[in-house]
Design a protein that fits this description.
Number of strands: 7
Order of helices and strands: EHEEEHHEEHE
Number of helices: 4
Helix content: 25-40%
Strand order of the largest sheet: 5-6-1-7
Structural class: alpha+beta
Shape: elongated
């Protein structure tokens, strides 16, 4: 199996997508953030308030910003016009938040990395805004759930 990001001399390269067709592409990713039940007990409706402010709304904005700037963070990613980015954060249990991102584009390559980056940065933002509670926080299971468009 050949790696697509290596040239014939095994040097890193950006994949050439110039011959690919422009299609609608969508990717969905998910991340889990485990917090102490005492932290999630502070939720007021659909929002968690920390000393730094509204955690979930801030995390959503950070995730959207991260999706738009993925190519600046991951060296071999293509710059893509993001047509849409939706991030949803829900309380799954008394100690778990689930972050789900859906990113779409009309381009020659997919948005998997953008969806994964959005979830990752949203989860890191939750961590940053809740670390002052001095209780354990665990980010886990950041994974691609689905992708559509293109060849596969």
């Amino acid at each position: 199996m050949a790696f697509t990001h290596l040239d014939d001399s095994a040097r890193p390269m950006m994949v050439d997508v110039s011959a690919k067709a422009v299609t609608v592409r969508v990717a969905e990713a998910v991340a889990t953030v485990a917090l102490a039940p005492e932290v999630l007990a502070r939720m007021e409706g659909d929002e968690l308030i920390s000393p730094k402010g509204a955690v979930l709304q801030t995390a959503i904005i950070a995730g959207i910003q991260a999706a738009k700037r993925t190519d600046e963070l991951i060296p071999l990613c293509h710059s893509l016009p993001i047509d849409r980015c939706h991030i949803n954060i829900v309380r799954e249990s008394d100690s778990t938040l689930v972050i789900r991102s859906t990113v779409g584009t009309t381009a020659k390559t997919g948005v998997e990395m953008e969806a994964l980056t959005a979830c990752s940065v949203a989860a890191l933002t939750v961590y940053d805004m809740c670390k002052g509670f001095k209780l354990p926080i665990v980010i886990s299971e950041i994974r691609l759930v689905s992708k559509t468009g293109g060849r596969s």
